[in-house]
Amino acid sequence: MFSYRHGFHAGNHADVLKHMVLVQLLSHLLLKDKPFSVIDTHAGGGLYDLTSNYATKSGESAEGIAQIWPLRRDPGLPKAVAALLAQIARVNDGDTLKHYPGSPQIAAQMLREGDHLRLFEMHPTEIKLLQAHFASVKRGVNIQQADGFANLKACVPPPSRRGLVHIDPSYEIKDDYRHLLQVLREAVARFKTGVYAIWYPEVARRESNQFPAQLKRLAAELDVDWLHVTLRVKAASPDGLGLFGSGMFVINPPYTLYDMLAEAMPWLVETIGIDDHAAYTLEVQQR
Ligand code: SAM
Fold first, then answer.
1. Pocket test for ligand 1, best of 38, 170, 178 (most atoms within 8 A of CB)
2. What CATH number is given to the structural domain containing 212?
């Protein structure tokens, strides 16, 4: 436990998919005047320096956001990619890509006065970074060094009865998959109209392979709409190690999300796909 530091992975292909979807979900909630809450159960450090030792050592952003950033003025960019890049531009000066915003920063910079952001993070170093990052923000952001899984149930429904729950564990322990399904079931039972965004890794592990089917079964049981998108950038390595893709499972997706992703995903495969196994999937169950 606690060996995972998101700084190693910031801006990689999985972050690009995750944060592109997140920006779309937030944009849709912002269409109505009524305030809403964002609950981020696994917040991370908030903002990452892509020139730090962590980031340069892993080089993961080089195969993710760093390939997309130089194309940001291309008028043919898919709208969802352009919207993500606009958020990343807000934490960078000019043309140099130095910082990469994590989900708390993306949410914080998109929310309005009156909206609310609730962040959970357990790692002793990450929580300090997160608290320091938001130190000057006095209102609207609540940060707790606590277990996001254990606390989710008590956070829903939020007082506004409008909200987005982002569940983005590190899956360091395989029990995270089971745990997530359990807390998701409880949360949706209490707050059925909430939007839930669940990220998961595509790795050579039984729990990861089974996870999308388990999420779909749970959504059917709870009688909620869902959208499932995956981005694979390369073949699984023969030694079974490493992240070759990832998925986002969204409960109660906005009706516009499918079309946005149908435009963006082929472009992403083309732009950051590494080998012939690069591919995407996109499915929706919406009544
Ligand atoms: N959501 C972040 C983003 O998009 O920028 C990245 C989060 S990272 C994948 C997962 C984080 O969850 C790590 O910082 C880890 O320390 C933290 N974590 C692990 N178990 C946790 C738990 N039970 N509750 C809250 N945070 C946890």
1. 170
2. 3.40.50.150
